[in-house]
Structure formats: structure tokens, C-alpha cells
């Protein structure tokens, strides 16, 4: 009789599944399908929804935002359904890493904002809703996508404490640090006052 899968092997399996789901470059796929060219040669070259918007196609940008969020959510929900909460948190982290460092694009991916929000909605929906509201508020106030992302990430662990969902606190800290790392160039531009606003060419 073959040996049963160990808990460690199960976590590794969901880590891989999460990474592969996160690695799907929906921005690149949608812009190619819609005849908008190679997204990596447009604007900032980023594969996320903000750069897709620079093509002038709002439908493609909205689709990218939703699908990039959905892949993080699906990774969490599948892992939780089949292997429990620890697997859900592992899949959450690796799906985010998959978006940022996708194997299909030589590990040159996006900044993970939509995937981060999708993960939070699936992992702890009240925290996810508060993070989305924080992101929307930040963007509405400044029309700067990166500012909204950094604000939402910064508040994510605060919302965990205020809603008594501290079981995912370590994951929240890791994701926040990764969001800041992926936005390090944006942070310098924010400090310099040169960060482009949504809709501006770059």
C-alpha cells in the first residue's frame, strides 16, 4: 500500500497550485486577444490593470483587474476547501508570488495589487472589503493607483486586528512587505512628486 501524503507534502502541493494560478498573466492574454499589442511594450511595461488602462481600453483594464483578483481568490478557496486553512494561507502567498514572478514571463510580472485584494477577500472577507474600500479611497483622493495600493496594504493588518482575525497576521505582514517591495520605484516617485496619475500616459 503506497504511503499517504504527509501534511508537508500537501502544503507543498498547494503552494505549487497557488503559484501556477497566480502566474497566469491575464493582462498580457487579454490585450493580445483584443488586438491591443504586447502589454510589456506599452507604458510602464507592467502586466497589471493600471498599465492595461494605458492602452485606452477600459474593458480590458476592468477584465484584468477582476481576473487578477479572481486568481488569488480561487487559489485560497480551493486550498481551503480541499486541505484546510494552513493550505489556504500558503496558496495565498504563492499565488501573490506567482503574479509578481510568473514563470511564463521569465519571472517579470506585476505588482500584485488586484491579486492582493482578491486574496484578502477570499481569506477574510471583512478584511478584504475594508482593504478594497481603503484602496478605493486612496485612489479617489489622489488618482494615483500605487498610493491606493500602498494604503490598502498598510492598513490590512490593522483591519485584521480590529476585526479580530489575527490568525492570518503573519501572512498579512508578508504580503504587505511584498507589496511595498514591488512598489519601491513608485515610492521614490511619490516622494519626488513624479508618480503618474491614472489615465496619464507614461
UniProtKB/TrEMBL annotation:
Its EC number is 2.3.1.275. The keyword Lipid metabolism applies. It catalyses: an acyl phosphate + sn-glycerol 3-phosphate = a 1-acyl-sn-glycero-3-phosphate + phosphate. The keyword Lipid metabolism applies. It is found in: Cell membrane. One of its GO terms (biological process) is phospholipid biosynthetic process. It is an enzyme of class 2 (transferase). Its main location: membrane. Pfam families: G3P_acyltransf. The chain crosses the membrane at residues 12-31, 113-138, 158-181. One of its GO terms (cellular component) is plasma membrane. Pathway: Lipid metabolism; phospholipid metabolism. Keywords: Acyltransferase, Cell membrane, Lipid biosynthesis, Lipid metabolism, Membrane, Phospholipid biosynthesis, Phospholipid metabolism, Transferase, Transmembrane, Transmembrane helix. GO terms for molecular function: acyl-phosphate glycerol-3-phosphate acyltransferase activity. Probably interacts with PlsX. Catalyzes the transfer of an acyl group from acyl-phosphate (acyl-PO(4)) to glycerol-3-phosphate (G3P) to form lysophosphatidic acid (LPA). This enzyme utilizes acyl-phosphate as fatty acyl donor, but not acyl-CoA or acyl-ACP. Belongs to the PlsY family. This is Glycerol-3-phosphate acyltransferase.
Amino acid at each position: 500500500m503506497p504511503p499517504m501524503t504527509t501534511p508537508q507534502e500537501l502544503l507543498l502541493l498547494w503552494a505549487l497550485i497557488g503559484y501556477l494560478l497566480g502566474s497566469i498573466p491575464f493582462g498580457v492574454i487579454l490585450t493580445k486577444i483584443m488586438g491591443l499589442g504586447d502589454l510589456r511594450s506599452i507604458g510602464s511595461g507592467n502586466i497589471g490593470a493600471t498599465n492595461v488602462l494605458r492602452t485606452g481600453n477600459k474593458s480590458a483594464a476592468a477584465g484584468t483587474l477582476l481576473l487578477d483578483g479572481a486568481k488569488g481568490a480561487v487559489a485560497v478557496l480551493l486550498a481551503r476547501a480541499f486541505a484546510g486553512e494552513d493550505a489556504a494561507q500558503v496558496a495565498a502567498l504563492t499565488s501573490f508570488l506567482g503574479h509578481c514572478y510568473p514563470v511564463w514571463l521569465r519571472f517579470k510580472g506585476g505588482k500584485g495589487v488586484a491579486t492582493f485584494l482578491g486574496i484578502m477577500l477570499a481569506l477574510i472577507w471583512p478584511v478584504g472589503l475594508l482593504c478594497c474600500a481603503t484602496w478605493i479611497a486612496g485612489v479617489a483622493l489622489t488618482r494615483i493607483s500605487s498610493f491606493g495600493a500602498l494604503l490598502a496594504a498598510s492598513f490590512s493588518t490593522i483591519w485584521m486586528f480590529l476585526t479580530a482575525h489575527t490568525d492570518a497576521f503573519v501572512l498579512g505582514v508578508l504580503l504587505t512587505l511584498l507589496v511595498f517591495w514591488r512598489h519601491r520605484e513608485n515610492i521614490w516617485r511619490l516622494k519626488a512628486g513624479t508618480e503618474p496619475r491614472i489615465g496619464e500616459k507614461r
